[in-house]
Specification:
Family: Belongs to the enoyl-CoA hydratase/isomerase family.
Keywords: Lyase
Protein name: Enoyl-CoA hydratase
Radius of gyration: 19 Å
Strand content: 15-25%
Strand order of the largest sheet: 1-2-3-4-5-7-10
Distance between the termini: 26 Å
CATH class of the largest domain: Alpha Beta
Number of strands: 10
Pfam family, one: ECH_1
GO molecular function, one term: hydro-lyase activity
CATH architecture of the largest domain: Alpha-Beta Complex
Shape: globular
Bound molecules: 4-(N,N-dimethylamino)cinnamoyl-COA
Helix content: 40-55%
Order of helices and strands: EEEHEHHEEHEEHHEHEHHHH
Structural class: alpha/beta
Amino acid sequence: MENNSILTLNISQEGVALVQLHRPEARNALNLELRQKLSETFQQLSQDSTVRAIVITGGEKVFAAGADIKDFTTATTSQMYLRHTEQYWQSITDCPKPIIAAVNGYALGGGCELAMHADIIIAGESAQFGQPEVKLGLMPGAGGTQRLLRAIGKYQTMLWVLTGKLVKAAEAERMGLVSEVVADENTIAHAIKIAQTIASFSPIAVQQIKEVTNLGQDQSLQGALALERKAFQILFDTKDQKEGVNAFFEKRPAQYIGE
Ligand code: DAK
């Protein structure tokens, strides 16, 4: 376990990592330090073979109100370029383990983009999503136009990004951005439960499923189906696949070892 003031990390015995943002005074706004810590944490979790699933949350009240707007007051183009903050997001994108966002309260701008870096989004009833950058004379810069487009389609995306409207959890679920809506007090616990279920499966199968599903989104259907078929075949070379099938016939829980 490693803790510091603006981000905490707890790893359970079952291999579930809980990453929590903690800047309540700024609604968990993602300043440079927080983004750096998030990036380092995801690099660490990617490499830690005991970690099988990750939950990211902002806690009970707010997920994240976006990038820290204070960082934008005097920044010039070259300063923004030289910050190369895309590298911090990339370590989350590159994480091979399933990521579940547990969202209560606001997930706005970079906060909504952070949630969209996850593979599953669990929202509390109070959650509100939005890309309000246009109100600041800006636009989404960490995938807001593109990930939203792929999740909810062009006509909803345009409405969100051109008006900056906030969308409640239930509506976001209907559009396909949110996987499940639960009572606020259950959001984190429910996300952890899903992570525990995933962590109980073969990590090789789980990571292949994540990789193929994400890669397939941007391929032709034929290419993506071939990718899926090859990954499916590769799993037959794992001890976990034999264990899973044998356990089924022996009517016992499978013991996956990640080999
Ligand atoms: N940044 C900095 N401080 C923030 C903040 C933010 N995003 N959001 C809230 N705060 C601060 C407020 O200034 C206030 O501070 P004090 O006045 O107490 O000192 C405190 O948090 C509480 O905020 P409120 O008083 O406003 O609290 P409310 O509950 O009434 O409202 C709110 C909460 C989240 C609805 C509201 O604060 C709000 O609208 N916040 C701004 C939301 C927003 O516009 N977000 C988009 C930011 S732009 C990039 C990649 C990504 C991005 C940029 C670059 N690159 C790859 C280069 C992303 C950009 C963005 O996200």
